[in-house]
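Could you help me review a protein record that somebody else here produced? What it holds is a sequence and that sequence's fold in token form. I have pasted the whole thing underneath without changing anything:
=====
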Amino acid sequence: MRNLTSIHRVNKSLQEFITMGNEQSLLKQHGYTLVEEVGQTYFMRTARVKDDKTKKQYIAKEIRINNVPRNLQEDILAEVDILTNMRHPNILKCKETLKDRDTLYVVMEYCEGGELSQKITRQRETGEQFSEDQVLDWFVQICMALQYLHEHSILHKDLKPQNIFFTKAGVIRLDTSGIPRGLDSTLPTSELQLQHYTPLEILRGNPHNEKSDVWSLGCVLYELCMLEPAFSAFSENDLIARLQRDLLSMTYCGNHSFYDSLLKSLGQLLKNSSKK
């Protein structure tokens, strides 16, 4: 009975995603079939969909515009338009956007290789670090994607392993569509970023800038090396206290001179990027 109830809930959730009131959603109208719902936040739902013609799978993000403050709606639409037109081999590709009166759909590339966070978890379970070449390869790809954004005056603001994906061929794809930037002021910090990757200045209420992204980049690099978050805390106050003390959770999975020297440089990178 419990399994039947769970199946019913899943089917109901998918049905709600497919239909809006008595009308078919734009996804269905444009030839997409729902495969599974991936996640849901305050104003957005995410699902894996299949193109009925090509049978290729995509990720569809449904943004409920009516949930967004009216003064921010135009900003969000403008930003989605920018993201749609970005072209870089290490940035997740946007296939198309669909909009009706109440809802905006962003149809994104689906990465079969999964998230970087999943690779880190699996590697940690082996008790061994990633190789130096592997860390550098991934890190360079992430840097290239972030550099492209900054060159186009775009801040990521949510850089973390959960937003870094891999294609089937193993190429990095950075997801830039997680949180429309116009909603920065309407959501708590915990909705914008996993706390481990949030600079102290942002926790204090200051606006994001390029250094904020660099801080998050440094935290991702640390986690690639050590397989643990750079900063761990059970609450925002605890995290702020740890950041003020400038403490890194130096948990080693093994000994490697590459990591020793890199972490010294990384500590300076994090320190410098936290300065205004």
In short: Residues 2-109 form a domain with the Phosphorylase Kinase; domain 1 fold (CATH 3.30.200.20). Confidence is low (pLDDT under 50) at residues 1-15, 18-23, 179-194, 249-254.
